[in-house]
Design a protein that fits this description.
8% strand; two-stranded antiparallel ribbon; Helix Hairpins; alpha+beta; EC 2.7.13.3; Heat Shock Protein 90
């Protein structure tokens, strides 16, 4: 059996790389890495969002709220101070003191939040001025009522302006934090989407690659197994990987190699055995002829009957040896053809004439039918006669006494010449019909009732296909069988 370059037919074990399980774990490990990296990125971005949110709510938003409260308290101080100067109601003095105390508390809280930062400078200026004027304000409030304000209006306006600027700054910072929050949110979504897409692509690529790495060697093995099943022989399959499928292909090629060696030895043995047996058979046949010719003395009727029986058995053994020899030749070398122009009627008539004695001996009639105006065919006359003779001989053998075998030559719808041989035998089960052309195959239900080697149809198939034709069977159990084959026409 020849070995292709891609196939390994040696006796050394092939090296093994990535197995199927490693490929699966590798691809899904990569997918898992991408997936967890995506989750990690999304978690980190989410953590950043939470930190920014906490900072925005805990600091900027609080400072902005404190600035608003302090402005409100300054306005309340100014309002209560003016009301007291106009109405001289001590209650407004208490309101003023309460607002000043609240202002001082909120200012201290804001300074504590901003301690050590440059943003505390505006509030520190306000606090410094407030503490500088605080004692004077308290003394003025404890003294006799006067027409002047406890805190000058321009001072209050200056503090309110500074606090308003501080409040606007914190609001801008809050807005900036909000924008940063949105940006990080969009980034997290983008990376999450990219991670999902990459995961899907990696999963798809991995699945396709894994499926391809499994499908290709399986199809190659399937091709080799089908060829071995249909033809009985096959070329070595290509080893497309170094995993378990590669080892399976290697083992399959080793099996083919061993089968080829065994088939070659068996064919050589059959060829040698056939040649060795034919010589003594020829001697025995000639000896029987001499005895039948009474060259050695008179022969009685009973002796002639046994001599005829011996001659028939010798002919049967001779036919068997001829089939074995021809099968051996067909498998060891290409069939040699001597193509010539043949008339379909001439071919069928010659084959029927040569098999007529078989039908007469069993009481089976053979009817010949050849359509008119059939085109000539191209082929080897001797080989094609053997095909028809094998088919007619089988039809006679399997038909009961008194039956009729129909041999026809006609043209089909495509203009091809189709030959058919139809018997009235027991038929072939549908499940076994594809197997009847295999070497040595015999229908299981007929093995005990009819003799045979299972080589005739195998030889016929080889000859027909060597001519570029096709042979097939149609049969129903209990209704007989019909064998068909077509051949290329001239031109």
């Amino acid at each position: 059996m020849p070995c292709s370059e891609a196939a390994v037919c040696g006796r050394t074990r092939m090296g093994r790389q990535w197995g199927i399980l490693k490929k699966i774990f590798g691809w899904y490990g990569l997918l898992g890495c991408v997936f967890f990296m995506t989750l990690g990125t999304m978690y980190y971005k989410t953590y950043q969002l939470m930190a920014i949110s906490e900072e925005m709510v805990g600091a900027s938003y609080r400072l902005s709220s404190l600035a608003k409260i302090m402005i409100d308290q300054l306005l309340a101080m100014e309002e209560n101070e003016k009301k007291f100067l106009v109405l001289r109601n001590p209650q407004y003095k208490d309101y003023f003191a309460s607002s000043m105390k609240e202002f001082e508390a909120r200012l201290s809280e804001a300074l504590a939040i901003l301690e050590g930062t440059e943003d505390a400078l505006p509030l520190e200026n306000v606090a410094q001025e407030f503490h500088s004027s605080r004692m004077g304000v308290l003394m003025a409030m404890d003294g006799e009522p006067a027409d002047r304000l406890w805190i000058p209006e321009e001072t209050l306006d200056r503090w309110i302006q500074k606090l308003s600027l501080f409040k606007e700054m914190e609001e801008r910072r809050t807005e900036l934090a909000h924008r940063t929050l949105q940006q990080h949110g969009r980034t997290a979504l983008r990376w999450g989407f990219i991670g999902i897409v990459v995961s899907l692509v990696a999963c798809l690529v991995g699945a396709l690659s894994l499926a391809r790495s499994i499908r290709r060697p399986l199809k190659e093995l399937q091709r080799g197994i089908r060829a071995l099943t249909r033809k009985g022989s096959a070329e070595p399959v290509k080893i497309l990987s170094k995993d378990e499928f590669g080892e399976l292909a290697f083992a399959f090629n080793e099996m083919l190699h061993r089968l080829s060696e065994e088939e070659r030895l068996r064919t050589d043995f059959l060829s040698m055995l056939t040649h060795e047996i034919r010589n003594p058979l020829t001697t025995v046949r000639e000896s029987i002829g001499l005895v039948e010719g009474e060259t050695m003395g008179p022969v009685s009727a009973s002796q002639k009957r046994f001599l005829n029986l011996a001659r028939r058995e010798l002919d049967r053994v001779g036919d068997l040896l001829e089939q074995l020899l021809q099968t051996s030749r067909l498998e060891s070398q290409p069939l040699h053809l001597d193509p010539q122009v043949i008339g379909p009627g001439e071919l069928v008539a010659a084959a029927v004439d040569r098999t007529a004695p078989l039908g007469q001996a069993k009481g089976v009639s053979v009817q010949l039918s050849v359509a008119e105006d059939l085109p000539n065919i191209i082929g080897d006359m001797d080989h094609l006669q053997r095909v028809l003779m094998n088919l007619v001989a089988n039809a006679v053998k399997f038909s009961p006494s008194g039956a009729t075998v129909h041999v026809r030559a006609e043209k089909d719808a495509e203009g091809r010449v189709v030959f058919s041989v139809r018997d009235q035998g027991p038929g072939i089960p549908r499940a076994e019909q594809p197997l009847v052309f295999r070497k040595y195959y015999r229908v299981s239900s007929l093995q005990d009732r009819f003799d045979g080697t299972g080589l005739g149809l195998h030889i016929a198939k080889h000859i027909v296909e060597a001519h570029g034709g096709k042979i097939w069977v149609e049969s129903e159990p209990g209704e007989g069988s019909a064998f068909f084959f077509f051949l290329p026409v001239k031109g």
